[in-house]
Design a protein that fits this description.
5-stranded antiparallel sheet; 164 residues; extended; single chain
Length: 164
């Protein structure tokens, strides 16, 4: 008589942290091949110490976080260089993050507004004590010397002339 098919038994049991609600540990690791496609110029700009946004020639809307197509008229956008100085529109402190960033918490994220640009840019603020952060405070973009080809290649600091 043929045996009934079975899944292979696992070598190690599941680690349970709590029974109610059931909380278990699961390890997950994967290599991921990612293409920036139409956003490639943005990342090339970061590697060259430039911050690029996009604008719609039809609507004249300017996006600090670039888009290939205008979110209002759907038309194609064009690249333009953003200023490297802006002001803090809003900010928050992150006390929890994805695995890759856990060793860096807490860290500060800011929404930066640029003069003449219609949307905001999300990035890190470095070197400013939380008690000194103010809405409207001037900030300046800085770039990593060695590109990681991620949005972490740009971060913001308080300009020296404002730090005194």
């Amino acid at each position: 008589m043929p045996t009934e098919p079975r899944l292979p038994e696992i070598e190690r049991g599941t680690e349970v942290f709590s029974v109610d609600p059931l909380t278990i540990r699961t390890h997950f690791e994967v290599d991921y091949l990612h293409s920036y496609k139409q956003d490639t110029p943005f990342f090339h700009g970061l590697a060259k110490g430039k911050l690029l946004g996009s604008h719609c020639p039809k609507c004249r809307y300017k996006f600090a976080t670039p888009r290939v197509h205008c979110m209002y008229c759907g038309g194609p956008t064009q690249w333009f260089e953003l200023p490297t100085e802006g002001r803090i529109h809003s900010w928050t402190v992150c006390y929890f993050a994805a695995q890759e960033f856990l060793k860096e918490v807490p860290f500060t994220l800011v929404l930066v507004e640029f003069k003449g640009v219609d949307t905001l840019f999300l990035s890190r603020l470095v070197g400013v004590e939380r008690r000194d952060i103010k809405i409207g405070m001037k900030v300046k973009a800085r770039f990593r010397r060695k590109a990681t080809w991620t949005v972490r290649d740009v971060y913001f600091v308080r300009p020296k002339r404002d730090a005194d």
